[in-house]
Amino acid sequence: MMVGIVALSFTLLSTAFMMLSYRYIISEKRDAMERNAGYIAMFASSFYQQLRSEPFQNYVASIALISDSYVIVAAPDGEIIYATDGVNFYAYENSKVPESVVSQVLERGSYAGMTSLGGIFPERRYLASLPITVSLNNLSVTQGLVLVSADASSLAEMWSATATIFFFTAVVVLLIAFVASSLFSAHQARPLNEMAEAARKFGRGEFDVRVTSYEGRCDEISTLAEAFNTMANSLAKVESQRSEFIANVSHELKTPMTTISGFAEGILDGTIPPEREKESLQIVVSETRRLSRLVRRMLDLARLNALTENTVTAQEQFDLTEVVSQVIISLESKITGRNLDVDVQMPDEKLMVWGDPDSITQVCYNLLDNAAKFAAAGTAITVQITKKDGKAYTTIRNLGSTIPKDELPLLFERFHKADYSRSMDREGVGLGLYIVKTILGNLKETITATSEDGVTQFTFTLTLA
Known about the structure:
single chain, Beta-Lactamase, Helix Hairpins, Heat Shock Protein 90, six-stranded antiparallel sheet, five-stranded mixed sheet, 13 strands, two-component regulatory system, ATP binding, cell membrane
């Protein structure tokens, strides 16, 4: 395409150049001949009685030789007196300039055009003619004609030479443009081909492929390569999360099912004695409930993931203090069962916020349930609500084991359970905080977690109504 554009440009340019150059050459030659005819006519008007004299003929021959033209001196009636090419003189006896040329010179004062002068010239030549005039008693009298001609072949040769130079120049430039565009196209296409090959490998499941060696290029290719690698990293992460999700789900489902199957078979085949059947059945019931919770959480997860990333959950105004209070009441038995206190620091009046009250109830329930589960016995759980910069900040704080710093960023991932909590949280499935994060993300809100010196707190935001 680039070579085609260059070729088209040169074609248009060459056409315009040739037309203009041809006109320029013809114009220059015409002006030169008219100028030389004027010199001869002006000189002859001063020595009109000496048209046949040797000095005047030498003068005419000099102009013809210098200008590479053919000069004819004729009488007023068109009869040719003599002609010269600057070297030789020619006599055209009984030859006359055509009447059309003579009449135009006498009537209009000049003649210019292509003509063979009625056969005087063997071919058509460019001719310029002026009259030789003298003033007698304030009257202008024509004493003769001066005709200056040039062989058209010399004009064509001059134009042909100019066109040849231009043609070869255009060919060289086109070759340079072709080579340069080919190299540039190959340079531009190489990273695109690599990206295409990498995309095909992605389709085959090879997610470790990256496009490299283009980081230093300050152009669109570098930006595209960077975006491509970012996409590849995202795809690899999604694939890793998918594999991990399947593995975690399989593990979480396998554990209770193995326990249930083992105790049921033990009861049926008599391996478990009758006095321990009740205890075994309690374990089966506990694992069944755990399996039910896992399935319920998975359904909640599927419902949340059905929302598109850019879709905000339908929101309404509700009283945040009322929601938090109801959650605390619903968890009262669990809190008192672990000998815990609750320190509530909330505004006395209603605190209206924007959000989905059912979803926020689940958020508060999961956070308070976690706080009650991991708080040290005999300590207090703090629930604090403050307002700042158009946001309501809800903080749930408990005293217990400190979560390692490298674990904090992982708390909100699916099926993640901190190492310190595995022995304490036999019933958890590692989806509670992930659901909290997903709900708040759909509401375009944030949640943060900190843990220092045994104090662990979670803080999430809601927009004030």
